[in-house]
């Protein structure tokens, strides 16, 4: 094959090899399925706040494990100063089980940003941000019995550092005696905002809220600001927790998501770091904000979600990453949960459903035809046969709110304990009450097993086979056309070369030329009147002769004692096995098997 075609053919072949066998295999296979029977809406959308009573916003809630009843606490915007209100609801009917109660013992200052936790079937804790001269963090224990809610002990202060504002508390119950609170602390680490934490005890009725150990600075990196922490328990014994937050400029671009694991010391004598601080987001372009974390029901895995600014669309997506709780290693790659990408996706919330499944909710702008609406997605993390890899399956995203006017956002989701298939979502809805006030609304769902259809159960091998089939269907026709084109060009060239005719050529006098411009070939086997004058053939003596006979030896041309005489560029004589004399560029003489002379004219 002509040398000029060797490189493109080899390159094209290498391209096909890389295309077919260079396909990367992910360690987690994420698939969506749209089986309608998997998800059932239970009842109608309901309100947790009522017309003419409160302007509810900024809520948190938690489920009682023994009964699946749930506690809701929210900011009451009708009172001055702002205060916290709460109520307990029936987990089956969504009807209130208690009167509305004030979720703190003091009304001398503004309270907001409540975080709640269930201690046991009758006791719960509310932590919040309260303002006197500056913002500090407080907590209060309550008892629920006989349809009534009662204060237990006194309100207690959580933070030790008080010079600047302490804000946005989040909490996790570790056992019936201990809980852990994290928050953002202005100048607590000496540079902007930092994330702080405190282990507290409710073991002694006479010392509720007692601090265990010192206030802890959570983040190792303390330059710029660390904000919006979230915390979850990641061990069955309650001795290991994970804290995540957003950090400014730490990943080289605006904000990123980072995490740190902790374990309790001895019998809850304090906390210490486990391993190093680690980055959670893979994409580090511009903004990654507002993380939320939840562990699965057996605490073997945990998942983090956050808002991720997508440069291509100029909008935010919701991204997630799953981890092993024991090793803190990732399971698969970072993944995007939303399908709608034409506008911002914000405010993620997540909760476990079982030992291998979880629910995530978020707010999507303009997707339902109004401003923000609330959407959800359920995932299942499943083992692959004979492999350590995982399949991450999901149902299609679904809308949660029924009322779609104005904004529905700031959703929170919690699963039930007695029926793991059920979960409830609460959110803030602007001006949904007929009196124009904002309120807290909710909806329950039940999730069945993932359907067992072919599309939703395929594994990585099926995906790879499908990909290769598609690639082959494109690559093979292209390859065939490419080879046919090469064959056609080669055949056309051979046809021209083998034509039985002689084309006369004139060689002009030149120091680098050959002959005197009057060359005549009288016979196919003899060269007459050929003169080589003052040409330098690789340092040999000048050669001048006439009437050189040409002898055939084994179908080769023999000049003196050599089978071949070759003179390299610019002038060359080449007697090859085909009885050929070939003078290459710029002048060429060619004797081929057809006993022809071919002289091309090069001026």
Report on the structure:
Residues 1-30 form the signal peptide. The chain crosses the membrane at residues 468-489. Keywords: Membrane, Signal, Transmembrane, Transmembrane helix. The structure is a single chain. With 603 residues, the protein is mainly β. The chain has three domains: 3-21 and 468-497; 30-462, Neuraminidase (6 Propeller), CATH 2.120.10.10; 498-603, no CATH class. The strands form eleven sheets. Strands 1, 23, 24, 25, 26 and 27 form a six-stranded mixed sheet that branches. The longest helix is centred in the C-terminal third of the chain and has 38 residues, at 460-497. The chain is globular. The two termini are 29 Å apart. The model is unreliable at 17-27, 453-470 and 500-603 (pLDDT under 50).
What ranges have pLDDT less than 50 throughout 5 or more consecutive residues? 17-27, 453-470, 500-603
Task: Return the domain count.
Answer: 3
Helical percentage = under 10%
What name does the CATH topology of the largest domain carry?
A: Neuraminidase
- Main beta-sheet annotation: 6 strands, mixed
Report the top-level CATH class of the largest domain. Mainly Beta
CATH architecture of the largest domain: 6 Propeller
Q: Specify Rg, calculated over alpha carbons.
A: 40 Å
Helix-and-strand structural type: mainly beta
Distance between the termini: 29 Å
Using the alpha-carbon principal axes, give the shape.
Answer: globular
Average residue-wise pLDDT? 78
Beta-strand content: 35-45%
Strand tally is: 39
Keywords: Membrane, Signal, Transmembrane, Transmembrane helix
Transmembrane segments: 468-489
Signal peptide: 1-30
